Amino acid sequence: MFLKKQNFLLVTFILCFVLLISSCAVKPPQEKGNFQQTDLVELIKLDPTLKLDIRYAGSNNFVGRPVYTEARAFLQRPAALQLVKVNKELEPLGYGLIIFDGYRPWSVTKVFWDITSKEDKKFVANPKQGSRHNRGCAVDLTLLDLSTGKPVAMTGEYDEMTERSYPEYEGGTAEQREMRDLLRSKMEAHGFKVYEFEWWHFDFQGWESYRIQNIPFSEIE
Fold first, then answer.
1. Is CATH 3.30.470.20 the right assignment for the domain spanning 2-219?
2. Which active-site residues does the annotation give?
3. What's the rounded mean pLDDT across residues 185-193?
4. Domain chopping of the chain, boundaries
5. pTM of the full predicted structure?
């Protein structure tokens, strides 16, 4: 059993590696029109109290392997500034923010699309249109309990591809739904909108005014 599991993980790693390499060779969709200048800001440089749990820099994600080489998170400056305000407003309530992901290079979005089953495609972005993460205007996050230093329990887990991830899901406990809705209310009060299938994913207003990007983290100052 152990060897079978090891072989499965090895095959998964090789598949993801091949897909990542091939995705890097493919170019993002070409967009026409006038776009705002990209100004990606590293979140912890604006607010060091934000806690990072960059899942795609490790193996605790639906891919099962790292797809980022660095555990960093970025957003376009207007979105980043509003996120900091959300974090500050939560502090008197005993909460903070844990960031799972922000700006995502387009090549990674293509990997996600290629490895995701047809029935679960609604949980990932089609690379032909690009992701709002690729534009630096989407963030994945949850609440941090400041008294324990641990994530707050929600109705479902991050990247869980089930109905428990829906922001309107009526299951779970009353407290879990209350915490999920608290996060949503604070984010939406600052220009973010929750994605219909993921309670943790929020798009910032005006996302369409920024281009799809494929900049590696290592090239962002």
1. no
2. 198
3. 98
4. 2-219
5. 0.87
